[in-house]
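Researcher: I'm preparing a figure for a lab meeting and need a structural model of a single chain. I don't have an experimental structure, so a prediction will have to do for now. The sequence is pasted below. Please return the structure as tokens so I can convert it later.
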Amino acid sequence: MHTVWKGSISFGLVNIPVKLHTATENKDIKLRQIHKDCHTPVKYEKVCPGCEKELEQDDIVKAYEYSKNKFVILDDEELEKLKKENEDKSVEIIDFVKLEEIDPIYFERSYFMAPDSGGAKAYSLLRKALEESGKIGVAKIIIRSKEQLAVVRVYKQMLLMETIHFPDEVRKAEDVPNIPEEQEVAKKELDTALLLVEQLTTTFEPEKYSDDYRTALMELIEEKKTGKHTVSATEKEPEKASNVTDLMSALEASLDRTKKKTTKKRKAPAKKTNTQTRKNA
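Model: Understood. Here is the structure written out token by token.
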């Protein structure tokens, strides 16, 4: 399993060298966009709408738009310096809280936490302390140049780190439009709803849930693969050297040069012959 972060986490004077591994993965089926006629995958290019010019990587810089069309440019050296100043690989658990005190809206991404070399004993100690206390640890960590708030908890006999949103990253519920005020609910309707909830109440078993759309889409893809519904991209032949442009340029240059010579001849004064010179003398 790929390691996405390596460092140490501590609580009190206990320091634990650890490695993080992504605990979840996106199973979305990626669909490509291809040209309808020749079936070649569509290419997306970086083009400046102002210059109408295709840009190379060296032509692009990072900037922050502080107001409409007004930017502060930040160079890579400045950003790298900030990153190094804040990229402390030693993460300290700053608080211990109860899991139920954190609303699920705060949770973002999960990482399996494994002990690194020499960290097994301290790892086991933290795991046992969390199990016995029924608490989770709150810490800060920098992953991929972004400071994250995170919690450390026990999951299936291992430590799991979950990044959580900072409070200012969670939008206010009061700003959501068209939420109805508390309304009078008939007792009969409520009793019926509660009965339905009771009938559908069960123990959560994640294995019984599946992505029906993804399954159906993969079945459709497999079915079409075995039929006559597959296409191949048109292979682009190597471009042959063409002299058309060069020839045109040469012709135009020749015309320009010819025009200049003709104009020069017309403007140049006629030279007098020796006979004419003697007669005038």
